[in-house]
Amino acid sequence: MLAPFFMWMEGLAVYQSSIYLGPGVNLAHLVAMVTFMGALLLVDLRCLGFGLTEQSVTQLARSAHRWLIGGLAGLVVTGIPAVMAVATQEYENNTFWWKMYILATAILWTFTVRRKVVQSHDPGLGGKAVAIVSILLWMAVAAGGRLIMYL
Ligand code: HEM
Prior knowledge:
Blueprint: H1 3-11, H2 21-47, H3 57-85, H4 87-91, H5 94-119, H6 124-147
The chain binds protoporphyrin IX containing FE (HEM).
């Protein structure tokens, strides 16, 4: 059903103006990922009792929030042209679709369940479980991104 849309995106040949555009966007995607994962892990690991334990989970989550949102925005902005460049290939790639489904689940988890936990003053045992699910979901998205070219 979406095939014509993906063919149209590829037809735009978004990287044709420079040979540096593709590698540049890929690099920016990775920088955004490091920013995002850094902000996420600081807080998730803190929920598990590791890292910056001198700050409360709530304080740390508040400080990391802009990096979390900025990193995610950067991932979406750089991910879209990366898809457009090889859209028909991505359309037929199951790993790409798995990455997108897990990404949707991870975003939902982060901005609903996890958000509640990091805003509560004592995340407790439930908070630890939420942080573990969060880490696993986002690691799965990152692994999906890396595996697209192999599977
Ligand atoms: C709307 C959001 C996103 C889109 C559209 C997107 C799209 C893409 C595309 C098309 C690729 C290149 C795959 C290929 O070689 O064909 C890629 C690579 C990758 N993505 Fe994403 N991505 C998004 C979000 C994310 C997120 C949230 C993460 C991590 C948490 C992530 C991690 C990666 C990684 C690790 C790679 C491999 C980079 C490399 O090895 O050079 N992506 N992504």
